[in-house]
Amino acid sequence: MSHAVPPPVFLAAGEVEKHFPAASRLISALATALANFSSGAEGGVVQPVRTVVPIQKYSGFLGIMPAYSEKDDALTTKLVTFYEHVTDPAVPSHQATVLLFEPSNGTLKAVMDGSIITAKRTAAVSAIATKYLMPVDSEVLCILGAGVQAYSHYEIFTEMFSFKEVKIWNRTKEKAEKFARSVHGPVQVCSSAQEAVTGADVIITVTMATKPILHGEWVKPGAHINAVGASRPDWRELDDDAMRNSVLYVDSREAAIRESGDVILSGAEIFAELGEVVLGTKPALREETTVFKSLGMAIEDTVPAKMIFDSWSAGS
User: Fold this and answer.
1) Which CATH superfamily is domain 132-293 in?
2) Fewer C-beta neighbours within 10 Å, C or N terminus of the chain?
3) What's the confidence (pLDDT) of residue 89?
4) Which CATH class is domain 9-117+299-315?
5) Which pLDDT tens digit goes with each residue over 166-177?
């Protein structure tokens, strides 16, 4: 007599937030996952480049992001939608759901809200890159953009690093002003991207831009840039000067040369994957001007999803 497979649990945003790992644990686990990914077959990570379904009628996209981590014993798929122009302010531009499976038999164990996972893991990976690549004694942080990723990056960066000054710019200044009022700690709202970038040691671009908003001539020599937006082959946040005159690090070479307009359209040469830096097989050239082009990888969802589910299981 066959036994019924138990239905998957559903973890809404509140449960995901409740069981989300602390920043230090998340960063440690993600650094290991990045190293495993860049180790090839021996790292035990199976992760194809994301499949993207364009919804041209509504200027939207559906991304499908599966990954398996043998060392974490975790199998997930993230479904994420991205719409360029959302008319209803109550509807976020990015929405995500993560499915967690039992690797040994394929049973679906959990369906969980993926928006918090996406926001926090992206910021954590940027923090890993920054730890290795930012100039020694960095004092000034610049954020371009004031959406969800700006908040998640600010949260983890102010927890992990000690910046003396934080500057922000957004195309709609009111959103930047709201950001400055909402977060803990002083934030200077700038009237232009150039004003925000000038003198910054670490720059984070988290915008909806499709054309460059960061120009290399503004960037302080030796600064580090986390380029997080512009996830399509024809979109850009950084101009040719910024891309070509920096040492370029990426999360995935394969993804960057297929998906990143900043990389493809500038013709910039990729120096290393971030995982190679974590492994120690490629150097962290923090004395140079550096760019970390973050596209986001499925394994970066797998790791926190497994940690969240394990925490929930332990408490249920």
Assistant:
1) NAD(P)-binding Rossmann-like Domain (3.40.50.720)
2) N
3) 74
4) alpha beta
5) 999 999 999 999
